[in-house]
Every structure is written in structure tokens, then in C-alpha cells.
Amino acid sequence: MGASGLGSALANCINLSNLTLNIRANQIGDEGASGLGSALANCINLSNLTLNLGYNQIGDEGASGLGSALANCINLSNLTLNLRYNQIGAMKVHQAQVLLQQIALISQI
To answer: Which residues are bridge partners to 22 per DSSP?
Structure first.
């Protein structure tokens, strides 16, 4: 099923408002991170999200895809995102942070 499949299944949960997802150390990589983010962007009622994606071999491409997708979560007000111990360069971390901070409704990152 993979992270993208999990995300697709979650996208069908239209009334989902709070989600804590710990998929630490599952080697989801860039494709899994981007796919998960894209699917979560379809959860239109999601307001509180905690994602632990540490130790998953996510690189710059995956971090960028995840950040861009999460920026479309228009009702997201609280986000806790763990991307520790991946292969994300410092510049991409900064770019993702700036992108996520542009979401006016997020009050806590």
C-alpha cells in the first residue's frame, strides 16, 4: 500500500479534522512523502495535523512536494512535522518553512 496509498485512503475521510500519523523509519522516500502530502491536501476539514516522518530517506524533492501540498490545507491551524534524519538540504528546509508560514491560518508550526 505504501505512504501514497495510505494518504489516498485518508483523503476519503472527508470529516477528518484531527490526525496524528507516525510512520517513522519506513523508508517512504520522496515519492511517498509527496504522495502523502498530496492526498492530505484533499482532507478539507483537517485542522490539526501531527506527522512524524523521521528516518524515511526523504530528500529535497519529497520535502518540497510535501510542503507544497500541505500549503493547500486551507483549514490547517496546527501543524507538528518531524522530518529529522532524512536527506533534506538546509535550503529546502528553509524553503518549506517559508512556504508553510505563508498559510495565513496556521497558528502553530
So the answer is: 52
Q: Indicate the DSSP class of residue 26.
A: S
User: Rounded CA gap, 99 and 109, in Å?
Assistant: 12
Q: Which residues contact 45 (CB under 8 A, 6 or more apart)?
A: 14, 15, 16, 17, 75
Strand-pair partners of 96 = none
Q: What is the pLDDT of residues 60-94, one digit of tens each?
A: 999 989 988 888 888 988 989 999 999 998 777 76
pLDDT tens-digit profile of 36-66? 999 999 998 999 999 999 999 999 999 989 9
- Per the structure block, which three cell numbers stand in for 19? 490526525
Q: Are 82 and 53 in contact (CB under 8 A)?
A: yes
Arch. (CATH architecture) of 2-101: Alpha-Beta Horseshoe (3.80)
